[in-house]
Amino acid sequence: MPVSSMHAVSDDAPLLHDLMPWAVRPLRIGRGWPMAPEPACLRARWALLTAAPDDAARGALLHASRARGLRTPVAQLPGHRTPTTALAREDGPCPEPVRVQHGAFDRQWLIPDHRLIDVARPELWRVADDRQVFVVEQAHLPEVREPALSFSALLPDGRSPAGRPGWIRPLFRRPGGRDPNLAPGLTGWLAARFGTPVAPEDVLAWIAAAARPGPAGCTVPLPEGPEVWRDGLALGARSLWLHTGGERAADPEGGREEGRPRLPGGSRPYVRSPLPAVPRPGELAYDAEEGALRIGEGLVAPVSPGAWELTAGGVGVLEQWYERRADPGSPGTLEALRPAAWTRAVTSELLELISVLTLLSELREELAAFAERLAHVGRPGAGPRDGAGGLRGSGVLPVPAARRRPASVLEHHEEGPEGQFTLV
Question: For all residues of the chain together, what is the average pLDDT?
Fold first, then answer.
């Protein structure tokens, strides 16, 4: 599109901190063994823990910390009916593992037992459901050229390979898609500007398209005209669809089918040579000439350079995904109890990840072009600038202090330590 036909955005871009005011720090599990790529492995680890003959052996396997030990009193995680008796006396079955988002793209399994997690962020567990979308804002990394945000339909742990804590921002403050985590009046203000209804999901899509990192926090330029707004919504919705593995923002008419995103037939990755029975560190490599992923003697193709080069927190996504599954763990620890073999489910997960990364690498180029478009000054007389100043003038900002705290969402009893009930 010619520059002269673009609408400008204000340099006075509001902070994501103000547009989505409620934010929570990442989870801190405190030990590696309650999370694994497959649930059967977690059940085996739990069985080994609870079969330990005495407190010394059980405490060593637990990997106790100041926050969690064999007798630390702790409440249940919201939504999970797990025991609250002391771990020193635990002899029951493993709580049913749940799928969580580890980092930006790795879907892992976690034992949802509060006794095992140093800082679980119960306020996030209370609002995790099939309507929720979590925004993960990483710390600013000026040396890394990546989007400012990632998104998840699953509860995210917020981990960053760079080791710097960021923020997790749920789209909704209450279960069931209620009480959007947006500055009060923002959707109405946007609707009035563009002459069209604006839903919370639309605001999130725009954020996905327009957000940019910065030393003072992530900023979100706002457009001055409906054309740029519509284009941003289309790009952002596609980003949400890809990041969530097709679980959110599906729209068949918009080219976003329900279910896992798939590449066109000729570019879908397949296993061309059998993968090794057990993954081992250092066996993953990319063959740029063949456009293939090599794992030992195994071969997966086609794999685009963009999928291989895509990073999160400055680290290659595919490399980190593989090393997580190839890491043998330290001898004598529960982490050393690994899956016995590379399963068909793991292969399917790898192929799905390659497809998503391929599509995301293409989208990142479009997002970069859109960012350039937003950075240009539009034609004179395009209208008042829609920056933070305009939001303050309309009373949308500043955000009330209460909107930065979690909502009271308790609609049932949650069991506290040793079977008592807690109120929130």
Answer: 91
Is the pLDDT reported for residue 424 higher than 90?
no
Between vectors from CA 306 to CA 299 and to CA 148, what angle results, nearest 5°?
130
Q: Which secondary-structure segment (H or E) carries 50?
A: helix 39-50
- By the 10 Å C-beta count (0-12 exposed, 13-18 middle, 19+ buried), 422 is classed as middle
Least confident of 158-172, 245-259, 340-354: 158-172
For 91-106, what is the HEC assignment? CCCCCCCEEEEECCCE
- Rounded to whole angstroms, the Cα distance separating 337 from 35 reads 12
CB 185 within 8 A of CB 396: yes
Q: Which of 121, 352, 166 is nearest to 247 (CA)?
A: 352
Tokens encoding 10 = 């204000």
d(CA 324, CA 28): 18
b or e along 302-323 (b: 16 or more beta carbons within 10 Å of the residue's beta carbon)? bbbebbbebbbbeebbbebbbe
8 Å CB contact between 21 and 181? yes
Contact 43, 133 (CB under 8 A): no
Amino acid letter, 356: V
Q: What is the pLDDT of residues 72-117, one digit of tens each?
A: 999 999 999 999 999 999 999 999 999 999 999 999 999 999 999 9
| Spatial contact of 367 and 149, defined as CB atoms under 8 Å apart | no
Q: 3-class SS at 6? A: coil
Distance from C-alpha of 207 to C-alpha of 169, rounded to nearest angstrom: 12
Long-range contacts of the stretch 316-320 (C-beta < 8 A, 24+): 317/104, 317/105, 317/353, 317/357, 318/284, 318/286, 318/293, 318/353, 318/354, 318/357, 319/284, 320/103, 320/106, 320/161
8 A C-beta contact, residue 66 and residue 30: no
Single out the residue of 119, 118, 34, 113 nearest to residue 69, CA to CA. Answer: 118
